[in-house]
Every structure is written in C-alpha cells, then in structure tokens.
Amino acid sequence: MSGHAYRLVRGERHRHGALEHAHPHRGPHHHHEAREHGHHGHSHGLVDPSVTRSREGVRAVSLALAVLGVTALLQAVVLVATGSVALLADLVHNAGDAATAIPLAVAFMLRSARAERLAGLAVVAAILVSAIVAGVAAVERLVHPGDVHGLGALAAAGLIGFAGNRVVAAIRTRAGRRLQSPALVADGQHARADALVSLAVVVSAGAVAFGIPIADPLIGLAITAMILRITWQSWQTIRAGTV
After folding, report:
1. What are the two backbone dihedrals, phi and then psi, of residue 96, each rounded to the nearest 5 degrees?
2. Buried b (16+ CB within 10 A) or exposed e, 48-71
3. Tens digits of per-residue pLDDT, 34-52?
4. Measured distance CA(196)–CA(81) in Å, rounded
5. Are residues 165 and 205 both part of a single domain?
6. Residue 133 has pLDDT above 50, yes or no
7. Using CA atoms, how far apart are residues 22 and 42, in angstroms rounded to an integer?
8. pTM for the predicted model, two decimal places
9. Percentage of the chain surpassing pLDDT 90?
C-alpha cells in the first residue's frame, strides 16, 4: 500500500470507546447523543432524567390512589351498616386524600416544579376541607344523638383504614424522598398520620360496646383535631420546600 493510500485510510478510521469503524469521508466527524446516525445505524439512546422522574411520580401517586380507593370503598360499605360519625370522618378524609392523587399526577406529567408546589397546596386544602366536614358531622351527632350498629364491622373498618394508610404512607414517602418532591413527602406524612386517625374508629367501636354511645361523636371531634394538626404539618412541609 502506498504512503498516500495509508494516510487516507488512517484519516477515515476512528474509535467510539471500544468500537472502531470507518466513514467514507475525511475531515471533522461529529456525534450527537440521543440521535441516530443514518448511514451506520447506531444511537446513544439517553433518556431525559425529567421524563424518568415524571413516570416514577405518576406511578407512585397512581398506586396510592388505587390503595386508598379500595380502602374508602370498603369503609363506605361499613358506614351504611353502622351509621358511625367517627367512621364517616375517617372515610371523608380517606376519600379526600385519594383525590389528591389527581393534582399530583398532573404536576408530575407536566414536569413542573411550580405545578408540584400548587399540587402540594391542593393537598393541604383537601386535608382542611375533610377536617371541616368531619367536624360538622361530629357536632351534628352531638346535637342529634343516634345509634351505632355493627360494632364488629366498625372496628374492622378502622383496621382497614389503618392498613391502607400505612401502605400509602410508605409508597408516597419513599417516592417523594427519591424524587425530591416536598408535595409527595407531605402527602406521605399525611397518610402516616391518617393511619392513627383510623385507629380512633376502633376505639369508638370499643367505647360504644361498653355502653358509651356519646364516645362516637366525641371521637369524631378528636379525629377532626388530628386532621387539623396534619393540615398544619403538611403546610409547613410545602412552605419549606425541602424533604
């Protein structure tokens, strides 16, 4: 091979890491990541981290929605049979908590920090509304006493609420810390506290069984106070913007 031909071949070959291939031209050669080279058919296929974060966030809130949706549905069935104000307070709160998955999912799909913050505020607002509804129902039952039936089912509904919220708290908190999302972490803290709120329903069933029917609306008021505390803690997390 002549010296000229050897120089030409050397000028046409180059490496990409451990791979070496030739191009039918001389001069500068540019590669652009995440774009395919048509004439030798390979790509660097990188995925934008914001897309991965968006998918993980939507997956987490969707799973939490499914768990809380089943929890609220089971509690609603028991509520019809028992007429417990304490269970009503817990059910309203769990249903509202499940609904917070909607603004959070939208925020993750938009991949917007501002949208996530607004979703966090929506979470806080939903918690506050559930506290108001629970409080009104408890006061109304104190003014107009009513019987509570199916105490065994009532206690079971409280345990269902506890288990559902513990699962959701783990899903949200882990995902929120991994994705650095204050809104999702606040929702996880909210669910963790909700698990304790649900145990108050079990206490209500026990008190009524011991002949203290007024305990049901009083525990409903106690649940309202706990929800208000959760509201404040969630607001602090959102305002700080850190996890």
Report:
1. -65, -35
2. eeeeebbeebbebbebbbebbbeb
3. 444 444 444 334 444 667 7
4. 23
5. yes
6. yes
7. 14
8. 0.66
9. 11
Supply the CATH number for residue 72's domain.
1.20.1510
Find tokens 């269902």 and name the residue: 160
12 and 81 fall within a common domain: no
Domain residue limits at 29? 1-46
Indicate if 41 and 69 belong to the same structural domain: no
Q: Quick one: 147 and 184 in the same domain?
A: yes
- pLDDT above 60: residue 25: no
Q: What is the mean pLDDT of residues 88-94?
A: 83
